[in-house]
Amino acid sequence: MTDRLDGPAAPREESDSRGDSPAPADAPHTTRRFGPSPVIAIAFLLPAALLLGVWVVYPIVYSVFRSLFDASGTGFTGLGNYATIFTDGAMLTTIRNNLIWVVVAPIVITTLGLIFAVLTERIRWATAFKLIVFMPMAVSLMAAGVIFRLVYEEDPDKGLANAVLTTVHDTFSSSQGYPEARPREGDQSPVAAQGGAVVTKQAAQTGRPVLIPIVGIKPAVMPGNAQAAKTPQGGNELSGTVWFDFTPGGGGKNGAVDGTEKGLPGMTVEAVSDGRVAATATTAEDGSFRFEGLPAGSYVVRLPQSNFEPAYRGLTWLGRTLITPAIIGAFVWVWAGFAMVLIAAGLAAIPRDALEAARIDGATEWQVFRRITVPLLSPVLLVVFVTMIINTLKVFDLVFIIAPSSVQPDANVIALEMWRVSFGGGNNQGLGSALAIFLLVLVLPFMIMNIRRFRRENA
Amino acid sequence: MTTATATTPVTELHTGAPRRGVAGRIVDRLGGGAVQVVMVLLGVFWLVPTLGLLVVSLRSVEVNNAEGWWTVFTKPAELTIANYRDLLASGFTASFWNTVAITVPTTILVIGIAAMAAYAFAWMEFPGRDTLFLIVVGLLIVPIQIALIPIASLYGGMGIFGTIPGVVLFHVAFGLPFAIFLLRNFFIGIPSSLLEAARMDGAKEWKIFASVVFPLGKPAIASLGIFQFLWVWNDMLIALVFANTDSQPMTKALQSQMRQFGNNVDILSSGAFLSLIVPLILFFAFQRYFVQGMMAGSVK
């Protein structure tokens, strides 16, 4: 793909219906010569030169000098501002975050782009898929930030990410959380608390239902599907009921299933023999449980502690530890389409013959992919990768919008810190200039790379 | 290189009929059904966050604070356009027009100024031309941050700090390197015979530019235009620094509401959705040019 750096993508659409447009060949610009006088050239260049000079070039020079002065701009501090960048604790967090960004985001995006590009060749609705994945590119990062603030809401009833996590979690672990619930206490009670768990005081008998009365359940915790408690009848297996031994409005007999009282579904129940768990069951909607196929014997029935831990509520996405990965997730959502489209274009250009030849020679599809497709794609992959590095170095909007102000110091990146220090309350334009120069130095290698590649390809 | 990345014949998003490629065959072995399922899931994954924004924007703050937006499927009656009505009644419409007033002139100026420079770089001889163009290439990825402080103090002196012209000029300047680069590379592909013929006829450079180069450059100019438009429309950083409350575009207006996200979710969601309607319409209408612009300059 690099072979045509100067033949930009733009004009290269298939010559469909646009016969009027000259097919821009790899036109050698050696034929250019008899032009107008340089004076006219200057006239054409002047507006652009003026704007670039004043708004882009002059600021670079100005910033270099400004970065050597203190906040007020009067006291010369030498490299003091740069020293601050590399010694101040908050600044080091900022640099560390940028490092995480630069290492993680480009790799994830390039890999995803490659996977998507490969997979879209396989489906009939590739166009629709590409449009969907590419769409975030048109959306402002501000709007993307609002979108992901909503996704990352901590309450699983509001935030999509945690709603999905808790759903998946609850599918694989049936235990329903009953925080603060405890056994009915007292000598009459058949059960007692034991190190966070609830156990029967007596060994349970098969054929006689085990009663496990529980109290202290808040209405908000009570599952919506709970039915009136029932005691399982008949059968030779060990069975019983876990229920909320409380009759709303009073009445009812403690320690007995009173008909109006609710069973507690989703409790994990263990049959324990000699300190070993012999069988596990889960209570039904009416609170009943039954150990099937359990050999006769003497068992203590136990409700393990896991029942009494609060229900799984997902992750604190916008908290101090996860904030940077969470924002990188949003960034990936925005940029994956870009990587996909570029890589798909590269994929389409791979000559089929080379691949066929390899297959005829007996290469497996994986070998073809690893040894031929990926190497042939490497220029495209490099472009995507480098572009993403530059973009991650400059990341600003998403961090600013997604990170709540209380965790912004933990999510901070150089581009954001530069703004905060100079305009967002910091009011230290000396340090701000130093940060801007630092950012410029970070992209400098890629700038040089661009220039060198351009020269090579236009030589 | 980040920038011009003319890979191949530009593939547009709609690449026509499904083509069984290399990779296609690789995946054949993995089982077509599984791929379909994975792709559907991925598509949903990419679509759902935006859908969530839309639904949230169509429900009251109370409902949004009580339950997740996905309950809309069982309770569609809770939908309301009240948020949008309130938003339009507030000052937000002014920031919408500010966004337009910043974006449209910027796009026109960038195209005009860059096209002139690109023509000079492509088809005129003057000393230092190649060096100057290399500088343009180098400027492609200069971070905006570098200019915030110097230009802020410059604008203070000129008295245009906080005004729309100030914001526009900043955008134009930082849009130029990419624009010049893109157009110069396109113009250079115009057959020299066309230009020579015009010059032989004694046409003035300005006339050649306006009647030969500019019309022939339309595809590239369209790409540049759409790209530039979206970039300026979506900008927040430049607006944060150089616009004040009278000249602020939507992005800045919304940002100022972020501090109380929970309470302002009605304004934020409807405002964010309103701000992305125009880009989405442009994207779907001109996606071909958008992709080309992006492919030609994956810089920003």
Can you describe this structure?
The complex is a heterodimer of chains A (459) and B (300). In chain A, the strands form two sheets. Chain A has a five-stranded antiparallel β-sheet with strand order 2-3-9-6-7, with no helix packed on it. Chain A has 13 helices and nine strands. The radius of gyration of chain A is 34 Å and the shape is elongated. Among the domains of chain A are: 88-150 and 319-427, MetI-like (MetI-like fold, Orthogonal Bundle), CATH 1.10.3720.10; 182-308, no CATH class. Chain A starts with 37 loop residues before the first helix and ends with a helix. In chain A, helix 8 (352-360) runs antiparallel to helix 9. Helices cover 47% and strands 10% of the residues of chain A. Chain A is α+β, with helices and mostly antiparallel strands and 459 residues long. Chain B contains 15 helices and no strands. Chain B is globular.
Top keywords for this entry?
heterodimer; A: 459 residues; alpha+beta; MetI-like fold; 5-stranded antiparallel sheet; 13 helices; 9 strands; disordered N terminus; B: 300 residues; mainly alpha; 70% helix; globular
Shape of chain A: elongated
Taken together, the total number of domains of chain B comes to 2
CATH architecture annotation of the domain at 88-150 and 319-427 in chain A: Orthogonal Bundle
SS-based structural class of chain A? alpha+beta
- Helix and strand run of chain B: HHHHHHHHHHHHHHH
* Rg over CA atoms of chain A: 34 Å
> Tell me, what's the shape of chain B?
globular
Report strand % of chain A. Answer: 5-15%
What is the annotated CATH architecture of the largest domain in chain B? Orthogonal Bundle
Brief rundown of the structure:
The complex is a heterodimer of chains A (459) and B (300). Chain A has 459 residues and is α+β, with helices and mostly antiparallel strands.
Topology summary:
The complex is a heterodimer of chains A (459) and B (300).
Chain A: H1 38-66, H2 80-87, H3 89-120, H4 126-134, H5 141-151, H6 160-172, E1 182-183, E2 191-194, E3 197-200, E4 210-215, E5 238-244, E6 268-273, E7 276-282, E8 288-291, E9 300-303, H7 323-348, H8 352-360, H9 365-393, H10 397-402, H11 408-411, H12 414-422, H13 429-457
Parallel strand pairs in A: 4-5
Antiparallel strand pairs in A: 1-4, 2-3, 3-9, 5-8, 6-7, 6-9
Helix pairs in contact in A: 1-13, 2-13, 3-7, 3-9, 4-7, 7-9, 8-9, 12-13
Chain B: H1 22-28, H2 32-57, H3 61-66, H4 82-89, H5 92-123, H6 129-139, H7 145-158, H8 164-187, H9 192-200, H10 205-216, H11 218-234, H12 237-242, H13 250-255, H14 265-285, H15 287-296
Helix pairs in contact in B: 2-14, 4-14, 5-8, 5-11, 6-8, 8-11, 9-10, 11-14, 11-15
